[in-house]
Amino acid sequence: MRHNKKINHLGRTSSHRQAMLSNMASSLIKHKRIFTTTAKAKALRKYVEPLVTKSKEDTTHSRRTVFSFLQDKVAVTELFTVVSQKVGDRPGGYTRIIKTGNRLGDNAAMCFIELVDFNENMLKETKKAASKTRRSRSKKSADAKVPVKETKVAEEVKPVEAVKAEAPVEVAAETPETDASAEEPKAE
Within a 10 A sphere around the Cβ of 6, how many other Cβ atoms? Predict the structure, then answer.
């Protein structure tokens, strides 16, 4: 039985596993998304999330602590400058795992692991979903909104028609003058 054994050893020795997770974490911080197996992604999530939480407080001690895990100056700088700015108000859950199917060679379960605040496609969908509400409309609110829409449409149509009617007349008046002045120098 596996009681109280939380660490997935991933078929590696302790030093190999720590080096692999360190490299994967620095790659995730630099590139914001990496493609890996699901087991490695779940192990990486437990490794990276405390580091991102530590980066919210930009002190020398927290930088040294994070550097001891990552062993990469560029990744530490990126984490404390760019990533910590975006996740400053988020109380946790900095990574997202998206499963992509199985690998062809050995049928291993594959996935993307990414930093949540850096995927613009998902952020756009979340904003659209947040604007919609599930409230039912009553007759009063539906009646009140209909006339407002009609007046907006009527106001928008009138100026467009007026502009369309005036624009061809001005263009037609200007065109012969430029043609006549352009022909005179050619005749001389």
Answer: 6
How many C-beta atoms surround the C-beta of residue 96 within 10 A?
A: 18
Rounded to a whole number of angstroms, the distance between the first and last alpha carbons of the chain is 105
Record the tokens describing residue 186, joined without a space: 């050619």
Place of tokens 């001389």: 188
pLDDT one-digit tens code per residue, 30-78 = 999 999 999 999 999 999 999 999 999 999 999 999 999 999 999 999 9
- Distance (Å, rounded) from C-alpha 150 to C-alpha 110? 52
Whole-number Å distance between alpha carbons of 170 and 178: 13
* Nearest residue to 29 via CA among 60, 89, 70, 58: 70
Query: What's this model's pTM, rounded to 2 decimal places?
Result: 0.65
Distance CA 68, CA 22 (A): 10
Q: What are phi and psi of 95, to 5 degrees?
A: -120, 155
Q: Please give the Cα distance from 84 to 66 (Å, whole number).
A: 13
